[in-house]
Known about the structure:
Elements: H1 2-17, H2 26-31, E1 35-38, E2 42-43, H3 50-57, H4 59-64, E3 68-69, H5 72-81, H6 87-92, H7 95-102, E4 106-120, E5 123-136, E6 141-151, H8 161-177, H9 181-195
Parallel strand pairs: 1-3, 1-4, 2-4
Antiparallel strand pairs: 4-5, 5-6
Amino acid sequence: MRKLLVLALISLWLTGCATQPKQDMSAFRAAAPRSILVVPVVNKSLDVDAPNYVLATLPIPIAEKGYYVFPVNTTKVVLEQEGLYEPEQIRQYPPQDLAKLFGADAVLYVTINRWDAQYALITTVVTVDFDYRMVFKDGTEIWMAHQHMQYSPQNNSTGSPIADLIVMAVNAAVTRAAPNYIPLTKQANQMTFMYGPSALPNGPYRDAGKTN
């Protein structure tokens, strides 16, 4: 099942991002971070819940690549205790001080550019668009990425054109009323950190706990 997911993600990346060159990872490799602090997400969309969904899905692919990720809920609490409540406010805070506060090697900033579902006739297209930026504890930028993904519900043919149109319209309406962003967000983060042209090199904990 995992192999099928990987193949599906690679296929999706090849479809939408085939022209993207592989990122130069020399700055990241030179910094060689072991631990990464993910700070609250800047949200430019109209969905107030979007940052929570994104934060919930970010640690997994980063940890799977072999890096320690500070718990995002604990991070939020500690930042609030320091008087840092708003993501934009945190962006203005020196990354050197953020890293020192937690003992982190690097700080990851994420911006949600789009998080919406657009309805057009008999289809609804769900879109997520993120910017990622990682800064080392000395303030040097060591990695950045952009990810844009879309999803529309698949409709199986019933053999009747009229019935097919009805099914498509119903699926589109359901998706528009309650779009499920989580699978698309997970795919975007996995493609960014694990499989795409900006994928992180394997970290120091990649094989931790594995036995031959």
